[in-house]
Amino acid sequence: MNLFTSFQISGSALTAEKLRLDVIAGNIANMSTTRTAAGGPYRRRTVAFAEDLAASRGRNDSVSFHGRGVRVDRIYADHRPPQLVFDPDHPDAGEDGYVRYPNIELAKEMTDMITALRSYEANTTAVNTAKSLYLKALEIGR
Amino acid sequence: MFLFGDSTLFRLGKGLDAAALRQRVIAHNLANLNTPGFKRSAVTFEETLSRAKDAAGLPLARTHERHLRQTAAPAAEPRVTTETDTYRRIDGNNVDIEQEMLEMVANQLRYNSYVQQVNSRFNNWRYVINEGRR
For chain A, what is the mean pLDDT? Predict the structure, then answer.
């Protein structure tokens, strides 16, 4: 049970980082979306992670290390003002002739994406290490 | 020495437990690489064990009631400690990916060496049993 939990811990991180990649991909895909269901331009989304802890069972020792990995706490919408581009011919241009575009910085999304990818890789390595420990344990007494 | 009272085997088992727990803790640290305010944890066991071993020393024979009494060695158990006093990033997270990867590899090697030692221990007993049969 002890070792199997480490699969779950790394698995939770893989799920969380994958969701983060999805959100970043969504941001990049909607870089110039001016129409949304809520009205107005698309808003950049960010993911907030939180440490996942099992209900504490007293002392923090070998019996009750209660770390369970990571969970996605919330997906936030960015509330920074949209970018204004003067284009009176655009169908979504306002009275003043400005079009409101989402405030997405491509460089920021790219760096976030690389961070998420590297974290994903680190957790994959942790899964592989746990697997090799488990296989090694099967060799006891052989 | 009797097989099931083998203290080396018992300690190796504890070492395997500690290494498995450490893998879990490192996985947890790596999982929270991007969690704001997260503080890393670490497992201490080998240090505690060697200290417990030093404290135990050689057994003292007590033939008189006024002879020195030997205090029992503290039990060496794996312990999880959280490093709360360091900072690595502006969001308060202190997980260092290189350090975690390094510790994970070191822990894997340690686990493998424990398994190997357990096996060689068992092989010794097997040898004793089989040779005695001849």
Answer: 88
